[in-house]
Design a protein that fits this description.
Length: about 500
């Protein structure tokens, strides 16, 4: 959406109920002590150039751990964005919608995806596989007015809106107790309530310490960084103050949808910002088949490449402003592969569960606990495993440090470009394409990573020859991709 960050439908909030809160902000027992905020102040840094993260939306912790070991690590993914791990409301009457997870009850690590032990084991397993964990952190608010009488939270905590015993009391919330109505007023956007959610007074020391303690607790468990949910609704100076106290040097990227009132550039002192303009431009252009217009794509003018987190879609745009999603099939894979081949920003690959109703939660048991994610199960979409996507993850890593070279297009729906001597890719949204291309690749036989991979020295997909002058003769079918890089020269 252009003017606001949508976390869930208003209708769902109005039908949901208010819970009561736990006296515990952290851990699992009454003897737990909130972590002390660190005095370390250092800017967050992005992952290594060429890194790619997967957004494993609503995946349970055991399943994320298994996927890190079985697929993500071996296929070059550097990180995973996981859904919020803190205790949240449980909305059985609403069918356990996906957005219940974005209404925190406490900071105990006990959600429908697993408890603290499950989460900790997942982080350790993924780290061992070379995959960092980035937590979707909800810092702007607690529960909403629509959650009245829904029962205890996912960890069994009781609470009421504006009253979370042992964590927050009435004075910890903003004086504005009304929904945002003027989306041209930055103060209202940041200090009034987003869809009736209890807006935290993030300028207050007590609130900042509690939020910092929660994030440092996650860092202590091995978490490498955070996606700050609804960052646009928190004053940038408040986020900067919170992040400056975090232990170590976590990677931070913030959800900020640019509009006339708020620019993502206001948040770059804290970390990267999500580049929704890039998503709209890339998705819309690929959808319309006008790929030639992607030459020089660089997202919003408010961000530089090293300040932008980019994506084709995310869990919000899938439901509220869909341009391209997994439902579009091959064109979606073309867009994702282009994002990975092109050097702009830090890319994030979506991995979804299948849905028809935009409010639907993930596959679950009758008690609302998320079912194990399995890419053999049609309920889990697993976009990150599609060969044109997974293959181009490796392409991006190999091509890191090289700019765009050898650009070619047909003026419309077919483009090709290289990454210096490291890689060359072709993208086709038109009719079947057969032609020769000038590349900067060294001579040799290459495995097309968009159709297969090298196993025991052999390519499971198509192979192509590059001659001594860097010339490639190739055929690329409609709605498909070709990707060659020096790491798969046979």
């Amino acid at each position: 959406m252009k003017h606001r960050t949508i976390l869930w439908p208003v209708s769902g909030l109005l039908a949901a109920t208010v819970l009561a809160a736990t006296p515990l902000a952290y851990g699992t027992s009454s003897t737990d002590t909130p972590p002390t905020a660190s005095s370390v102040s250092s800017p967050s840094t992005a992952p290594t150039e060429g890194a790619v993260m997967a957004h494993m939306f609503q995946w349970p912790w055991d399943s994320v751990a298994r996927e890190c070991t079985d697929f993500l690590g071996p296929n070059g993914y550097d990180g995973v964005q996981v859904s919020p791990p803190q205790e949240h409301v449980v909305l059985q009457g609403e069918g356990f919608p996906w957005w219940q997870d974005y209404q925190p009850v406490s900071y105990q690590l006990d959600s429908r995806r697993g408890d603290r032990s499950d989460f900790s084991e997942m982080v350790a397993t993924c780290n061992e596989a070379g995959v960092d964990i980035y937590v979707d952190a909800v810092l702007n608010h607690m529960t909403g007015s629509g959650s009245v009488e829904s029962g205890p939270g996912s960890a069994g905590s009781e609470f009421e809106k504006y009253s979370y015993p042992g964590i927050y009391e009435n004075s910890d919330f903003s004086e504005c107790r009304a929904d945002i109505s003027n989306w041209d007023d930055p103060d209202e956007i940041r200090n009034c309530e987003l869809l009736s959610l209890a807006d935290l007074r993030t300028g207050e020391e007590g609130v900042r310490s509690t939020l910092t303690g929660y994030l440092n607790d996650l860092i202590d468990l091995g978490v490498a960084g955070f996606r700050i949910d609804a960052a646009k609704h928190v004053p940038p100076q408040d986020l900067e103050a919170i992040v400056s106290r975090l232990d170590g040097d976590p990677y931070v990227f913030q959800e900020v949808i640019e509009d006339s009132a708020i620019s993502p550039a206001e948040y770059t002192g804290t970390g990267e910002a999500t580049d929704f303009a890039y998503s709209e431009e890339l998705s819309g252009t690929v959808r319309d088949g006008s790929l030639a217009q992607l030459k020089g794509i660089n997202g919003t003018e408010a961000l530089n490449s090293d300040q932008a987190t980019v994506f084709v879609d995310n869990h919000d745009t899938q439901r509220n402003d869909p341009t391209l999603t997994y439902k579009d099939g091959d064109p979606y894979n073309v867009a994702t592969a282009f994002m990975l081949a092109h050097p702009y920003g830090t890319p994030k690959v979506m991995s979804s569960f299948d849905f028809e109703d935009p409010e639907s939660g993930p596959p679950a048991a009758s008690n609302g606990m998320t079912s194990p994610a399995n890419c053999e199960d049609e309920d889990w979409v697993c976009e990150h495993r599609q060969q044109p996507v997974a293959g181009m993850v490796e392409f991006r890593s190999v091509a890191a440090g090289s700019g765009v070279t050898d650009w070619w297009d047909n003026g419309n729906d077919q483009v090709a470009f290289g990454r210096g001597e490291n890689g060359f890719a072709v993208f086709n949204r038109g009719a079947d394409l057969s032609r020769t291309f000038q590349t900067s690749l060294p001579e040799g036989t290459y495995c097309d990573v968009a159709s297969g991979s090298v196993v025991d020295g052999r390519c499971t997909g198509e192979t192509y020859e590059i001659d001594t002058g860097g010339v490639l003769s190739a055929s690329v079918a409609s709605d498909s991709v070709l990707g060659l890089h020096v790491g798969t020269r046979l």
